[in-house]
Records
---
Amino acid sequence: MKRIIHVTILAALVMVITLISCKAPKKAAQAGGQEVQEVTSVKAFRVVRERISAKVSYTGTLEAVKKIAITPDIGGKIARINVREGDRVGKGQVLAEIDTEATRLQLKQAEAGLAVALAGFNDAKKNKDRMDRLIKENAVSEQQYEQVRLACDAADAQLQQAQAALNIVAHALDVSIMKAPWSGVIASKNAEVGDVINPMMGGFSAATGVLTLMDFAKVKVAVEVSGNDISRVRKGQPVLLKTPSLPGREFKGEVTIANLTADPSTKKFLVEAVFDNPGLELRPGTFCEVTFEVNSHESALVVPQRAVLENTHVIVVENGKAVKRDVTLGIQNTTLVEVLNGVAEGELVVVEGNFGLEAGAAVQIAEEVKS
């Protein structure tokens, strides 16, 4: 039994000696009895002064600034549609026509009626001119003169009536031809040749018309802005637009409407922005993101967002050591933050490797980044 105890004690002593001997190399890494401090590799950003702006973004749908339904003023059967969807058209170009055969017959009838009325008026006018001379010579009675004068007035009224009838038919003929009021693009064709339409009846939608014409050399975006943001959005304010259909592109515009009253149901405020689109790259009906610059400072001390820990402090590199600095923050955007105090221009702040980095730790800057 004693032999077993002695063997056990001897084995334990061997294990202790082995553990001590394994730690010997770490001690060898010590110089003069003092431990060498571990160095942490970090990435840093040099504090700079530059313009910074706070922004808010909303999504919306692109719309053409100018859009119109091409609709005839009279009803009838569509005789011709001269354009197709996607066609570019010029101002005054004939787009479609209503069947005008009956209207042209009415025009001939009205022209004939006008000719008859004109002949009657000319005859009555000659009689009146003759009576004007005779009445001065007392060659006719007042009753005879009055009858001729009234006949002339009646002939004049009939002439005006015939002219008005002709004008109505001519107008109907004119509006049966649908022309482009301005240059643009045919966005949609909403009817076919042979369709019978009547703008005055519910069966035909004047909102869609025979064709839809758009001019999107300028486009607009309407968004609903929250009550927290509307106080920072104003008419004439610059705004940027991005759309997934044109990745990497930005378009500049301005706010044209910033409603002062909220929608009763959503409690949000309508804001509309307009953008120039001379190359027609921005297409109506597509989704987009608009960004409003709501505040800016021209020469602010800025650091990347990732340099700020817990919104209270940053780690500055001084003489190879990590130094904790409490900071006060100003304007922030998605990448940068303004530092009102706590750092100076040109100092290096840690942006990668700062989490868990203790004050006083030895650091080595592996890379100085630009953002």
Note: The domain at 68-197 is CATH 1.10.287.470 (Helix Hairpins).
---
Amino acid sequence: MSFEKGIKKPVPAGSERDQSIDVARGLAMLYIVVFIHGIFWLSIFDEQFRSMFLFEMPVIFAISGYSYALFERKGVVRLNWRDYSTFLTQRFARILLPYLAYAAVCFLVVAGAALKEGGTFSFWRALAAWVNPVQRGVGYSVMMLNLHLWFIAPFLVVTALMPIVTKLPSLLRMPWALWMLLLAGMVYLLDAVPGTMLNPVQTSLFYLAWSVLGFSLAKRSQPLRFGELVVPFALGLLILFCLPHFMLNMQVNKAPPNWVFAIFTSCWMAGLLFLSSRFDRAWVSGLASKVWLKPYIQYGYSIYLWQGLGYSIAVWVGRKEGLPTVAILGAAVILSTVLGMLASPLERVRLRMG
């Protein structure tokens, strides 16, 4: 069976790469490492106020979907079963090899801390917990080492499903408001199922939807119109402001993502897309060469992984020495960036097939 129908022809050799997607990816990763995890992991501001800025992961997945559309446009892969398995092997290697390197270091840190404190420590169970990206060290972690690693499992699922679901044209031409309501309805139905068995499915489908949205934006011949963004943005805000006050804590609503979080993130995304359409393209491209942003463009995934260790070291030393929060945050960002850059060669490992 073949999925080759509808694959775009390769772009002409020498065509200039649009740097806006690289800049968007770098800014999103910078936002996560410096701001989101800074205010959450260092307990800056009230939790409900902090949660109003939790739109970062839908943005990351939308950028991933947009990037996949550019990758597909090059004609690099024709999705028959052989090419699909090659695609999965190469993509999974790029995700899992950096993760396993980080997990190995975290396991050694946790094992060392356990041996220092004495008592019993299950070596093999701890190792298995860290090697498994679904468990991501839960039950065998300290401080911030694994707080951000929930991202890996749904990212693997989305990566595997994107080549298949993007062959469904009806998903790619929906108006924004309809897309927003369908996303909210989907997670509402999944959230209504008793128990937690479907939580991983709910999370994966939620972020798959954002990745498909990014893909569809890349495929559009015309940018989104003003009304397509502003009308659902206003509708979403109206719905959110009619909710009881306690429901607006997005830290609660995001795990797993429920319909409130779906509307909340849709509002943020509509606003961000509208703002980005006002930026001068030359100015955006100029950001790609900025020293403060380049590491997050080139090594973003590795920095994302290693921020768990960077923040843990900075917080441990900073609190021991009584340093102010701003100094701890600065040290955490620097450590995370340096560690990610040192580990980044693993992102570029390519497996040869056949």
Note: The longest helix spans residues 81-117.
